[in-house]
Write a sequence for this structure.
């Protein structure tokens, strides 16, 4: 049997991985409840916010508390679904606590699943599909795919400098707008406004926006406000990056 | 009309794919995500062509994505957000958002605000559509493994 300390450690890992993967607050709480029960940690209290959390296990004599700061508000569906299956197995009683810990470590390690070139290529194709949906022709398609691919490449390349997400968004929005506008000019596109729209769509904070409303609707008001404001800040960053090019009046 | 519908579905499905890769969606869930993305825009196009507003159509589209997400989450034993959040991406109001920016930057406050309101209402309708399914389907049994 493992002690309360290591059981709390497991729950800390779970909460951290889920929050970094962009899971809604109620989901983190629900998963912690399920995992806590599976680990035999009946008496504990969790307070979850997008930017940090506390976990307290109440014992007969004293309580144990962990406070964690979550610095990275990302999106990682692999993490969210991998932890979902770990918690399902743990609650069915089919894996031991040690196994759970090893599984969590594995999830943390291989969270970058797709190679960068594939993501860049995929985003270029997606933004290309967007411009066609918006009513663009092949000229807009070419301009969008090149600029969206370059912007995504910049996002990948800037990762190792560990810049603030906001700075990366401004730079990527600037690149997407400048390259697509210049491309439309070079190809003399009939509707040059569509290409920059489609190319910057890759930056739109869709996940925090949707999660914010889900948080608000399920009663996690503070989490919803935090995510909503984060989404608004990123949206403002996109606007700034685009204006850095457009304001010159090309 | 049928050709338009197929085109809308196919392009929206492709548009979803890149975001699936960006969001690190597990490989076996990529195709269902594209299906959800295509279905959302398909429902919106049908609703709008039957007379719904852009906002109402977006709500119905997101509702469809939410329902599909509920079914897919059960079938694939994955959290619902994998399918729903990825699936509404093709409906994001990019054109009015860009319009807001251009018009406000050019000093046209009236048209700028008009575009801004459109952006917020459509974005809100998308989130509300997903949340509607979320809230309704959560009510009956809060089972520990509720996906």
């Amino acid at each position: 049997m493992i002690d309360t300390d290591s059981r709390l450690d497991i729950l800390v890992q779970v909460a951290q991985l889920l929050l970094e993967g962009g899971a809604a607050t109620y989901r983190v709480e629900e998963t912690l409840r399920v995992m806590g029960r599976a680990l035999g940690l009946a008496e504990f209290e969790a307070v979850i916010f997008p930017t940090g959390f506390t976990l307290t296990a109440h014992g007969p004599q004293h309580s144990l508390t962990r406070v964690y700061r979550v610095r990275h508000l990302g999106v990682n569906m692999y993490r969210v679904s991998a932890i979902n299956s770990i918690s399902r197995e743990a609650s069915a009683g089919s894996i031991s606590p040690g196994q759970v810990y090893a599984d969590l470590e594995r999830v943390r390690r291989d969270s970058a699943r797709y190679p960068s070139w594939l993501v860049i290529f995929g985003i270029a194709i997606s933004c290309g599909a967007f411009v066609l949906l918006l009513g663009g022709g092949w000229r807009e398609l070419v301009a969008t795919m090149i600029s969206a691919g370059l912007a995504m490449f910049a996002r990948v390349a800037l990762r190792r400098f560990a810049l603030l997400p906001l700075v990366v968004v401004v730079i990527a929005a600037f690149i997407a707008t400048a390259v697509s506008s210049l491309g439309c000019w070079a190809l003399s596109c009939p509707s040059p406004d569509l290409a920059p729209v489609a190319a910057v769509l890759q930056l739109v904070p869709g996940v925090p926006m949707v999660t914010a409303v889900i948080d608000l609707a399920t009663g996690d008001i503070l989490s919803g406000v935090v995510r909503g404001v984060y989404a608004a800040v990123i949206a403002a960053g996109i606007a700034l990056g685009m204006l850095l090019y457009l304001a010159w009046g090309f | 009309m049928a050709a338009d519908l197929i085109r809308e579905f196919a392009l929206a499905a492709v548009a979803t794919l890149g975001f699936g890769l960006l969001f690190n969606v597990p490989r076996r869930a990529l195709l269902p995500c594209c299906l959800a993305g295509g279905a959302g825009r398909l429902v919106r196009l049908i609703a709008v062509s039957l007379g719904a507003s852009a906002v109402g159509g977006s709500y119905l589209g997101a509702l469809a994505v939410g329902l599909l997400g509920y079914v897919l989450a059960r079938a694939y034993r994955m959290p619902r957000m994998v399918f729903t959040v990825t699936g509404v991406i093709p409906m994001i109001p990019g054109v009015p958002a860009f319009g807001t920016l251009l018009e406000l930057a050019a000093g046209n406050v009236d048209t700028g605000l008009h575009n801004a309101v459109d952006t917020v209402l459509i974005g809100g309708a998308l989130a509300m559509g997903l949340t509607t399914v979320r809230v309704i389907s959560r009510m009956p049994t809060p089972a520990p493994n509720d996906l």
User: Anything to note?
Assistant: The two ends of chain B are 37 Å apart (CA to CA). Chain B has six helices and no strands. Helices of chain B lie at 2-22, 27-49, 54-76, 81-87, 94-105, 109-138. Chain B has a mean pLDDT of 89.
